[in-house]
Design goal:
Number of domains: 5
Mean pLDDT: 93
CATH class of the largest domain: Alpha Beta
Low-confidence stretches: 1-9
CATH architecture of the largest domain: Alpha-Beta Barrel
CATH topology of the largest domain: TIM Barrel
Strand content: 25-35%
Radius of gyration: 27 Å
Structural class: alpha+beta
Helix content: 10-25%
Largest sheet: 8 strands, antiparallel
Number of strands: 33
Length: 721
């Protein structure tokens, strides 16, 4: 019966995808289902390759594909490197050295297929505007040969790889940058660039190469209305030759990322989690996406770490897009090739626990201890800290879970083999799980049945002593539980503060097939806890935990939400003030900027008055930071929500309290805080840094029940000195 229902659902979703006419607005476009092949694929390979592969260099912790931007924005390290290696040659003249004479697309396709990846995303064009295919349109804006058909390799690099990939099981896809740093037409007339160059070029790519993946970027330099993104997507989904199978993403305009679009795209954001939306995290094997000669072998993630990265993303319902950066000759660096093949060795044994799976009720199981690890710039081997090599006092993720809903099979992925106990056997405990009597449990690699027993609410599984002659899999080990895992739906819980209330109102969306129970004392809900029947308010700060129970299934995931009873923050009375905020500017030290905390120990390179919170006062684009301080003048008593978005890190303090922590090296991310503020002045301090690559900074607000908008400049004040 279950299989019959799944078949019906599949045909219904397939019919919906084919029959729907998508309108040119986000309300319609966001309803288009992500093609199922992508959700099942889980693992893809990103390829950054272009003229920037000729220098193939940046300081550690920076993106080598941003080489040209560094030359033009005063990056002294890149400028010194360029002068020493290339003399007076311009970046554009390096195209002649991008020969790709060793490029063998069939070899690339074979290696990628062997890795277990199911799709590829090759840069058709990055922010420098170089086209990896013979696009005649480049001649309409550039006054020189600026595509692979007429310069450098004199071949269709993109088309050749697509041809090779179509001989394999790997889906071909492409990356396309909406904007170009120094395109003459873009600098002169953005709208003409979009209509006369960008749109025709994107349609040329879609109609000529028919990609299964279309991965856009460079969207932050203008709103989606500039790029006419919704109109393009409506054409792509309704009329293009790939309308039924193409996968797209969320990078379609400033402020769109993580809010609209088919697949969300965190970048070096290991804690990003989108349980109810398709997502894919990308990252390099080292830090850079493009080939970087400046990275040493120890800067690369180990194969074990990369396998755990894949497992971690898949367990949380996402995909993993792992980047490689070939050199200017067209060779995949041996260390990258080795990593791909070693990942493939693991996948040959364990891919059943990866492909065609979904997020289970919980993605992982933690041991006791602290969980507040802070990732480094680029993440490094953070996953090893989280799993097999914890710092003293810190917890580890003892296992990850994936779930095949069509077969009702649960997979338990262990980062390390359990230690042998005093009885001579190794055991692993799955907490809060009671399989049905007689459930078959086995090692996935050997299909060896495993004994198990129930101990209270926990399932204790016995494993043999590890035998390397039998276990060929490294990096992680998989236990399979047959016909186990179906669980009650996760509760949809909302927290509201109606009518300017400072006491939260808790609402759980009801379901006819599920009962929801909750607690407010920090204990896990059981069927003996309070039964939810209607919205309720709380009178003091607490944590609400809600869990669903359904006949014939396991208890569902626990939704845990903080309930904050707010106190009004009184205004202060500063002495004489004037408009604007005071700011100090900083340049990063040797080793780079990775946290706003570093700014407070650096000597400023500039200071003055800023009329707005933005990046205009940055001393340089990369490896630099700002600290703003002064006052926020609130026009009326109210419940305000402040939103701080940044790429990379930022932090906000109001009245001396740290209220938003958005620190670390990451793509644009938006954090918020709800605050009851009394009319008048409130002290403000905001710190921001950008390490490398894209950059973003904005502070917005909304009044209870109102729309989100930038904090007006007239709200900012500073002391008169």
């Amino acid at each position: 019966m279950r299989n019959y229902l799944l078949v019906c659902i599949f045909f219904f979703m397939n019919a919906l995808l084919h029959a729907q006419t998508w309108q040119a607005n986000w309300g319609s476009l966001d309803q288009r289902p992500v093609p199922q092949w992508f959700r099942d694929a889980k693992f893809g390979i990103f390829i950054h390759w272009g003229v920037y592969s000729v220098p193939g260099w940046s300081s550690k912790g920076q993106y080598a594909e941003w080489y040209q931007q560094g030359l033009n924005s005063g990056d002294s390290a890149r400028i010194r490197y360029h002068k020493k290696k290339f003399g007076d040659l311009t970046y554009y003249q390096l195209a002649d050295r991008f020969k790709a004479e060793l490029y063998n697309p069939d070899e690339w396709a074979h290696i990628i297929e062997q890795s277990g990846a199911k799709y590829v995303v090759l840069t058709s064009k990055h922010h420098d505007g170089w086209a990896n295919w013979p696009s005649a349109l480049t001649a309409t804006t550039w006054s020189m040969p600026w595509n692979a058909g007429v310069a450098g390799p004199h071949r269709d690099l993109l088309g050749d790889l697509f041809t090779a990939l179509r001989k394999t099981s790997v889906h071909p896809g492409m990356y396309y940058s909406l904007y170009e740093w120094f395109n003459p037409l873009y600098k002169k007339d953005r709208r003409a660039y979009v209509s006369d160059y960008m749109w025709p070029q994107m349609k040329e790519l879609i109609n000529t190469y028919r990609p299964d993946v279309f991965w856009t970027d460079g969207e932050w330099d203008g709103p989606d209305t500039l790029w006419r993104s919704t109109q393009f997507l409506a054409w792509l989904y309704n009329e293009s030759p790939v309308k039924d199978r193409v996968v797209t993403y969320d990078r379609w305009g400033a402020g769109i990322r993580f809010h609209h679009g088919a697949v969300y795209t965190p970048e070096y954001q290991p804690n990003a989690d989108f349980e109810d939306h398709a997502w894919e995290e990308s990252r390099g094997m080292g830090f850079s996406y493009g080939y970087n000669r400046g990275e040493d072998s120890w800067d690369y993630n180990s194969t074990q770490s990369l396998v755990l990265q894949l497992i971690d993303k898949v367990s949380r319902g996402g995909n993993f897009l792992l980047d490689i950066g070939p050199d200017e000759h067209g060779k995949i660096p041996p260390i990258m090739e080795e990593r791909l093949l070693q990942i493939g060795d693991w996948m040959k044994i364990n891919s059943e626990a990866i492909y065609n799976t979904v997020r289970w009720r919980e993605p992982s199981q933690w041991s006791a201890g602290r969980q507040d690890y802070t990732p480094n710039n680029g993440g490094g081997d953070l996953l090893l800290k989280l799993t097999v090599d914890p710092d003293p006092g810190y917890a580890v993720k003892e296992c990850f879970y994936t779930y095949n809903a069509s077969h009702n099979d649960l997979y338990v992925l262990l980062p390390k083999w359990p230690a042998v106990g005093p009885t001579g056997t190794a055991t692993f405990t799955i907490h809060d799980l009671a399989p049905a009597a007689g459930t078959r449990i086995e090692l996935l690699e050997t299909h060896q049945p495993l004994s198990w027993h129930q101990q209270g609410g926990d399932c204790i599984i016995e494993l043999p002593v590890y035998d390397p002659s039998k276990m060929k899999s490294s990096y992680a080990y998989v236990i399979k539980l047959f016909n186990t895992g179906a669980f009650a739906p996760r509760p949809a819980v909302t927290i509201d503060y109606p009518n300017k209330a400072i006491h939260p109102l808790v609402t759980v969306q009801p379901r006819t097939d599920t009962k929801y129970f909750y607690t407010l004392d920090g204990t896990f809900p059981t069927e003996s806890s309070s039964l939810y029947t209607e919205p309720f308010a709380v009178s003091k700060t607490a944590t609400v935990m809600v869990r669903g129970f359904k006949s014939g299934g396991l208890p569902g995931a626990v939704a845990t939400l903080p309930l904050q009873v707010f106190d009004w923050m009184p205004a202060i009375r500063p002495r004489k003030v004037m408009p604007g905020l005071h700011y100090t500017a900083y340049e990063g030290p040797d080793g780079g900027l990775h946290s706003i905390k570093q700014l407070f120990d650096l000597k400023p390179v500039g200071n003055g008055t800023a009329v707005a919170i933005d990046r205009a006062r940055m001393p340089r684009k990369e490896q630099a930071g700002l600290i703003f301080y002064g006052y926020l003048k609130v026009p009326a008593d109210g419940i305000y929500t402040l939103y701080l978005a940044s790429d990379d890190g930022s932090g906000l303090w109001i009245d001396g309290q740290a209220v938003i922590d958005n620190d670390g090296a990451h793509a644009s991310d938006d954090r918020s805080i709800r605050m009851p503020l009394k009319k008048g002045f409130h002290s403000l301090l905001l710190a921001y840094f950008n390490g490398a690559g894209e950059a973003d900074l904005s502070l917005q607000y909304s009044l209870e029940g109102g729309k989100k908008a930038p904090v007006p400049n007239e709200f900012f004040f500073q002391l008169v000195k």
